[in-house]
Design a protein that fits this description.
single chain; alpha/beta; TIM Barrel; Rossmann fold; Immunoglobulin-like; 3 domains; six-stranded mixed β-sheet; binds beta-D-glucopyranose
Amino acid sequence: MDKRLQQLTLEEKVSLLSGADHWHTKAVERLNIGQIMMSDGPHGLRAQFGDADHLGLNESEKSTCFPTASATACSFDPALLERVGAAIAREAKSLGISMVLGPCTNIKRHPYCGRNFEYFSEDPHLSGELSAAWIRGLQSEGVAACLKHFAANNQEKARLINDSVVDERALHDLYLPAFAHAVQRAKPRSVMCSYNRLNGIFSSENPLLLDQILRREWGFEGAVISDWGAVSDRAAGVAAGLDLEMPYVGPEHDQDILRAVQEGRLSEEAVDRCVERILHLWDNAVEKTPCDFSCHHALAQEAAERSAVLLKNEEDLLPLNPKMSVAVLGGFAMSPRYQGAGSSHIAPMQVDLPYEELKNCGLDVAYSEGYGSEELEPDEEKIRAAVALAKEKDCALIFAGLPERMESEGFDRETLALPQSHLRLIEAVSEVNPNTVLILSCGAPVQLPKPDKVKAVLLMYLGGEAMGKACANLLTGRAVPGGKLAETWPKAVEDVASHPYFGYDSFRTEYRESLFVGYRWFDTAKIEPAYPFGYGLSYTKFRTEQAELSSAEGGYTVRLRLENIGKREGSEVVQVYVHKKNSAILRPEKELKAFQRVDLQPGDGKTVELFLPTEAFTYYDVQAKSRKIEAGDYEIRVGTSSNVIKLESEPKL
Ligand code: BGC
């Protein structure tokens, strides 16, 4: 037991269970217990030393704005996420911030969720690997991560009261595994409980989530923190293992805890356990350390380049021929959308403007606004001017996507459509210029215009402060796109299995689609999406040979040869999916269980090895309440976005 516990009065202990203000824990001076400061997260720092808020409204210190998780997930590159995490930690330390509130590990259940830009993927394996990498990077610099929002927080509508009604299979096979992976592999020092209820009980007082699963089953040893204002019954929270309430909302909740102990409804040991875990956070407080922010802009650019997804490239229009004259169109070319709105909103160090960066690449460019970056309705005058310019030039680059007003923490989207102002511009320009390229900035899937006369589409998602330079490099071939979609892009929202049950009631959301989220649904139901999970083009070409499967300790090894047979350097993501033949239980058609991004120079080849642990074959057995392996034949489907690779042998378990 921590000796300090004996020296603290019950009142002092209870007072430590809530923050001092918006961003700090409380201090106990007589025992030399100081405060720690925490900050959002997770794509850079939102450190507030003045007026505080959790909506991204008030000023914050300048920091490097990295691409959001929806973008970096497409890198399929844990090592990159680790470097980004470490860079954010260095910036945090320079401001004396001991904890960064991230990563956001929730599964994208539906493309409308307003916060999807902050989440990695619809797939738990990918989300878990990338979350763990980010945490490892952050904590390697001594700064605590806070894995959030635990759990089943998949919509913004009525997020403070909504009850996520999730069946046990979906919970254990889809919504929890990414958190489990991050906790077990990267050991975050804290976890943030979500606002919502899970099957009737608020996460902030849910013993199944906070005690049974998180601590007993996964062995989590850190502190659990409430989402900002997520507490309902504080004493029940302490009993369940919610250590710290954030932010400070007045003395009432502390008094509730005190009363519950005095009346014998809550044990003092439960209070002690929470205090001990909070003291441990203080013991690991950072020392303020200067940091050179300047190299982080280059890392933000690298992350944006590695995360961009080339969705379409007819007649190899990209990379642009440097001799082409180029019309640069759309308000986003001058006033780019590069980050999300809400608690992760950052005051960036510097923002690269796509138009300026294209000019700096030596292209013959001219700009016409086409739409104002905040305008949703078409302005025919601006469109006419853009069309006139597009007619004169060899190629038209249209910067479009979703303005902040259409996508934010705090509300869900209501359509997959682009705003009319962007749509009209794309339609009108692609009608007159056969070499039209669309550069998309948005945090989640959108519907592309039909009929589709655009020849190339480069998806930047929300690419961070260096997105302008990154996309100029990608368009001109100074960088080669290699990102793959970390979520399915549906043709129509009605194709999404959760659609009928998404946000239809403010109090209760039944996850009736169960396991069938993202590609798990599209593959099983054989619905063709606009662009599938794992998809993305390159400027070069790869050849793969037959893959081999061999037994290894604790699982299997998939081995295959990959060659870059094109003229450019580039990268490919090898993806390994497991399919159970003739399964007797409800299962998706296939599930991603391993991946590796491979970089290759032209003419080079490499034998790639991926490990498939036995765990990859398990499912959650609701009767046994544990993970089991169904006996029988399995198929290992290995592929890249464009290739399905044959396997010589199949496992029988
Ligand atoms: C968000 C959290 C965030 C917190 C503090 C909440 O509204 O859900 O993700 O960390 O505010 O800003």
